[in-house]
């Protein structure tokens, strides 16, 4: 079974985002700091074209900083501005505003030189599901706008929220449907909750999680489950070790179903500690070998 998307939904969502994009000067693309490349929309540049973009590595509090820093460098080399945030705890949010102003400083200066009084910068948040878009918007607003109570009579369609005198933010994010041409990226998107569990083969996802942990965070997995597996152990064998520790056998067989759920749940509740799923060296080597 492979993870599949419904092209109809995808096309509609993309159309909606494209419409909204026409209104803005700058786009804040939120990605999950635990897999900045997998949760980044590869087609962003095509969709957004000439707008300024800032890539925000959100959930920075959950990632393995050393690995994620390599991705920051990777995106910066491609010309993006990258900002780390922890939206849940309102960390570093105003840095995004500062960077947006920096990005648009030249354009504003040109307008001023022509004698045009510049209007406020218009921005919007986009990203795949569950990267923290709503949290980001809400926290940014709380930090910057004293009173955001809805005024009676104002239709709650789309509103520009004034972050300060220079910058406005669209109050609803643009949801990008995850696009991937590679099942491994799909499995990571499933782990971070961007793809719904009911369309995902969770057995494959959990075996893939074991593979990733085995390669980069073996100690974390061994410590959590009090097992002693090595990096050359087969994934199914490791799953059986975990099953053996945690669940009673059913009819003489390991309780795979419970173990699959446990692994995914443990990842989503950070039981393995600070983890980055996108391994820089692995993915870049793949990119290079794809090009050859
Ligand atoms: P959206 O689908 O992109 O709008 O994502 P939400 O804003 O609904 O957030 C998804 C989940 O991620 C929620 O449980 C948030 O509390 C959580 N979340 C959002 N930002 C952060 C963050 O920076 N750090 C952590 N640890 N959790 C976050």
Written overview of the protein:
This protein is of the alpha/beta class. It has helices at 7-21, 44-48, 65-77, 93-113, 133-144, 183-191, 202-216, 218-225, 235-246, 256-268, 280-291, and strands at 26-32, 52-58, 81-84, 121-127, 160-164, 167-170, 174-175. Strands 1, 2, 3, 4, 5, 6 and 7 form a seven-stranded mixed beta sheet that branches. The longest helix is centred in the middle third of the chain and has 21 residues, at 93-113. The model is unreliable at 147-155 (pLDDT under 50). Bound molecules: guanosine-5'-diphosphate. Residues 58-59, 61-62, 86-88, 127, 129-135 line the site of guanosine-5'-diphosphate.
**What's the order of the H and E elements?**
HEHEHEHEHEEEHHHHHH
The pLDDT mean sits at 89
Coarse shape:
elongated
- Bin the helical content: 40-55%
Tally of contiguous helical segments: 11
Topology:
Layout: H1 7-21, E1 26-32, H2 44-48, E2 52-58, H3 65-77, E3 81-84, H4 93-113, E4 121-127, H5 133-144, E5 160-164, E6 167-170, E7 174-175, H6 183-191, H7 202-216, H8 218-225, H9 235-246, H10 256-268, H11 280-291
Parallel strand pairs: 1-2, 1-4, 2-3, 4-6, 4-7
Antiparallel strand pairs: 5-6
Helix pairs in contact: 6-7, 7-8, 7-9, 7-10, 9-10
The structure holds guanosine-5'-diphosphate.
């Amino acid at each position: 079974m492979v993870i599949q998307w419904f092209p109809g939904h995808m096309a509609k969502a993309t159309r909606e985002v494209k419409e909204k994009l026409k209104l803005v000067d700058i786009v804040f693309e939120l990605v999950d700091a635990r897999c900045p490349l997998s949760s980044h929309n590869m087609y962003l540049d095509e969709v957004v074209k000439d707008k300024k973009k800032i890539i925000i590595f959100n959930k920075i509090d959950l990632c393995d900083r050393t690995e994620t820093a390599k991705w920051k460098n990777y995106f910066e080399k491609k010309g993006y501005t990258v900002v780390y945030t922890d939206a849940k705890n309102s960390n570093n949010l105003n840095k995004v505003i500062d960077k947006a102003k920096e990005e648009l400083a030249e354009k504003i200066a040109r307008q001023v030189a022509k004698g045009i009084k510049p209007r406020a910068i218009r921005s919007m948040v986009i990203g795949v599901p569950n990267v923290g878009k709503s949290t980001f918007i809400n926290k940014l607003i709380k930090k910057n706008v004293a009173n955001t109570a809805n005024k009676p009579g104002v239709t709650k369609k789309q509103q520009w929220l004034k972050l300060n005198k220079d910058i406005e933010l669209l109050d609803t994010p643009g949801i990008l449907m995850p696009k991937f041409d590679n099942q491994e990226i799909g499995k990571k998107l499933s782990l971070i909750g961007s793809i719904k569990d009911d369309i995902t083969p969770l057995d494959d996802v959990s075996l893939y999680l074991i593979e990733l942990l085995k390669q980069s965070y073996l100690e974390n997995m061994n410590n959590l489950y009090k097992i002693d597996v090595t990096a050359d152990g087969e994934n199914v064998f490791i799953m059986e070790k975990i099953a053996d520790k945690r669940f009673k056998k059913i009819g003489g067989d390991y309780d795979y179903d419970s173990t699959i759920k446990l692994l995914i749940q443990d990842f989503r509740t950070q039981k393995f500690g600070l983890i980055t799923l996108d391994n820089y060296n692995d993915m870049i080597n793949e990119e290079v070998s794809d090009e050859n």
